[in-house]
Amino acid sequence: MQKTGEERTLSSLRVGQSGIVCAVLTKGDMRRRLQDLGLVCGTRVDCVGISPLGDPKAFRIRGAVIALRHRDAETVRILG
Q1: DSSP readout, 45-79?
Q2: Global pTM exceeds 0.90
Q3: 3-state SS string over 40-51?
Q4: Cβ-Cβ contacts under 8 Å for 36 (sequence gap 6 or more)
Q5: How far is CA 57 from the centre of its chain?
Q6: Could you tell me the CATH number of the domain that includes residue 29?
Q7: 8 A C-beta contact, residue 18 and residue 80
Q8: What mean pLDDT is predicted for residues 46-61?
Q9: Boundaries of domain holding 41
């Protein structure tokens, strides 16, 4: 079991786990897209599903379910 408050990436979440966004490390258009989706500091994110091949994963962000590829989820740091 993960310790509360441990910093890791969004991509490390398993189905049923959650975390709080603490940083978005990408730049440019992708950073803007992630922020527009609600991935800003302080937002709770829940992992709700994973595709049969393991990529992408589905996350609940502010009530909406969004699929993110592993390489994009790797750029989001979370606490949890």
Answers
A1: EEEEEE-TTS-SEEEEETTEEEEE-HHHHTTEEEE
A2: no
A3: CCCCEEEEEEEC
A4: none
A5: 9
A6: 2.30.30.90
A7: yes
A8: 94
A9: 7-79
Percent of all residues in the chain with a pLDDT value above 90, rounded to a whole number: 88
**pLDDT tens per residue, range 28-50:** 999 999 999 999 999 999 999 99
Contact between 69 and 40 under an 8 Å Cβ cutoff? The reply is no
Residue 2 lies in a domain: no
Q: How many domains does the chain have?
A: 1
pLDDT digits 0-9 by tens, 9-18: 999 999 999 9
Would residue 59 count as lying in a domain?
yes
DSSP label at residue 20: E
